[in-house]
Specification:
This protein is α+β, with helices and mostly antiparallel strands. It folds into two domains: 34-337, 3-Layer(aba) Sandwich (Rossmann fold), CATH 3.40.50; 360-493, protein yfey like fold (Sandwich). The chain has twelve helices and 20 strands. Strand 13 (387-388) and strand 14 (395-399) form a beta hairpin. Helix 6 (187-212) runs parallel beside helix 8. The longest helix is centred in the middle third of the chain and has 29 residues, at 249-277.
């Protein structure tokens, strides 16, 4: 979750991570494609043995001689190996599919990297954690520790090298410095306002995730652990000093409350995404504060801590991140909530020509699927070649390919991914039997959130939309009959002319 490279740490307190190298399952199922997305709480920040080829991202891939992040463990418990591991320290929600994480040297978004690297158009399941960096939770913890005003050297003399980590001895239950530091006065209100600002970004993120997973696939979103143990369960010495890891006892309550509120908002947005998705995917929010870490495994808890304390060497970003026991607990919580995922339906090969599919539904038409690339669509012979309005345009178009009749339909692409069908032939029908020329009374059979508006150009024509999940139907009705219709994402259906 943390992006701490811009801060200096004056305290050197840590909890050593237990070395744990997971062995891949003997028979990983290649028919299950799992991708791991997210921030430092998914990547493996906090673990000792990460992929040396990705130092900015700190990815614990679980290979020979490497620590194992919880997403890898979950994939293996599902009987698979991750098709792609895209989680990276410092990532925010927009790094999933909007903007590359430039600070970590990334040139592609996490989703673009995963699709290009795996060669897939969609995954069977994904795991992710996003939100902590969206609210700058790391900076707030530093604020509460008052670390900018204390010299690094003051604590460095107390540290001991252990397994390549410089940590402080267990003085006062992990308390070394920051005796007078307190959170800013506006901590609670300011952080809760940031969480509300992040709500919209999370909503958009989950819609994008739905498009990255095949229909019927699984989307498992993990929350964040409670970093500090509940104050009432602190050891006596910490209660007497009124500090845990340098954080004041009253500020600990504030930080735990912020953590709980962030988890609540993430859970609410996952629930909303599931409802809007209309059952197209299996969604699950996993609260690790109850299902994995807690109680008693936070810092200053009565059991072994599942997180590192403040750590300086080799990376200060490892502070307050799960150690290997913490990643194990994450994996246990996620697989308890989602014990298994369904295998990808096998491809059917036949020596006879299949019958032509003329039914357009919310997943696509024949071999054309929403979200597939323009190149893949053209390769099916169901779509003509991609054509952009101009080289710099983000959207493009295509018509029906040789499998269909010219003029049956047209396609709209956004970033070269299929987002809309426009039907121009009466032989293309919806699953409800609706097509051009059908009476508008048939629309009573269509389910979804209904809305109506006048056609932008054609007077006397009403556009009736039924939104169900990430895709919807839109019918143009004039004089009681369907005169045109389309299926696409809400943003694509809003287009009136070309890309506008």
């Amino acid at each position: 979750m943390a992006r701490w490279s811009r801060w200096a740490l004056p305290v050197i307190v840590g909890v050593m991570a237990t070395l744990h190298v997971a062995v891949p399952p003997a028979q990983a199922d290649p028919a299950i494609a799992v991708a791991v997305f997210g921030d430092s709480y998914s990547s493996g920040e906090g673990l000792q043995l990460v992929d040396p080829g990705e130092p900015q991202c700190q990815r614990a891939l679980g290979g020979a001689g490497q620590s194992t992040a919880w997403g890898v463990q979950v994939a293996r418990r599902w009987g698979a190996e991750p098709k792609w591991f895209a989680a990276c320290t410092g990532a925010v929600s927009t790094n999933f599919n909007d903007t590359p994480q430039a600070g970590a040297g990334r040139t592609k978004t996490q989703l673009a990297e995963a699709l290009a690297g795996s060669g897939l158009e969609a995954f069977d399941a994904l795991t992710a954690s996003f939100g902590g960096n969206d609210i700058d939770f790391d900076a707030k913890i530093y604020d509460c520790l008052g670390l900018e005003s204390l010299p690094v050297a003051a604590a460095a003399g107390a540290g001991v090298a252990a397994g390549g980590w410089l940590v402080a001895p267990p003085v006062a239950g992990g308390y070394v410095a920051g005796a007078f530091a307190r959170c800013s006065d506006d901590t609670d209100a300011a952080m809760r306002a940031r969480i509300e600002e992040a709500r919209g970004g999370l909503s958009g993120l989950y819609k994008q995730m739905a498009r990255a997973v095949r229909p019927g696939g699984t989307i498992a979103i993990a929350g964040y652990p409670q970093i500090l143990e509940t104050v009432g369960d602190w050891p006596r010495i910490n209660k007497a000093l009124r500090r845990c890891q340098g954080i004041h006892i009253e500020d600990a309550d504030k930080l735990n409350g912020i953590n709980a509120r962030l988890n609540q908002v993430i859970a609410e947005q996952v629930k909303q995404a599931s409802q809007e998705d209309g059952g197209a995917h299996r969604w699950k929010f996993v609260d690790v504060t109850t299902g994995g870490f807690g109680p008693h495994h936070g810092l200053c808890g009565t059991e072994a801590a599942f997180l590192n304390g403040v750590t300086l060497v080799p990376r200060r970003e490892r502070s307050f991140h799960p150690n290997q026991a913490g990643h194990d607990a994450y994996a246990q919580a996620v697989t308890a909530a989602v014990p298994a995922v369904e295998r990808r339906p096998p491809k059917v090969t036949t020596t006879t020509a299949p019958s032509l599919d003329l039914t357009l539904d919310l997943t696509g038409l024949g071999p054309l699927r929403f979200g597939m690339t323009a190149a893949a669509a053209t390769a099916t012979r169901a779509a003509s070649s991609y054509d952009s309005i101009e080289p710099s345009a983000s959207c493009g178009f295509a018509g029906a390919g040789p499998l269909y009749k010219e003029g049956d339909f047209s396609l709209t692409y956004e970033d070269r991914r299929l987002v809309r069908f426009d039907v121009a032939s009466s032989r293309i029908r919806s699953p409800h039997g609706i097509g051009i020329g059908s009476p508008s009374s048939k629309l009573s059979a269509v389910q979804g959130i209904r809305s109506e508006k006048p056609h932008h150009y054609n007077a006397g024509t009403t556009q009736i939309r039924f939104l169900k999940g990430a895709v919807g139907y839109q019918f143009d009705v004039r004089a009681g009959s369907i005169v045109a219709w389309a299926v696409g994402t809400p943003e694509a259906l809003d287009l009136v002319e070309g890309c506008a």
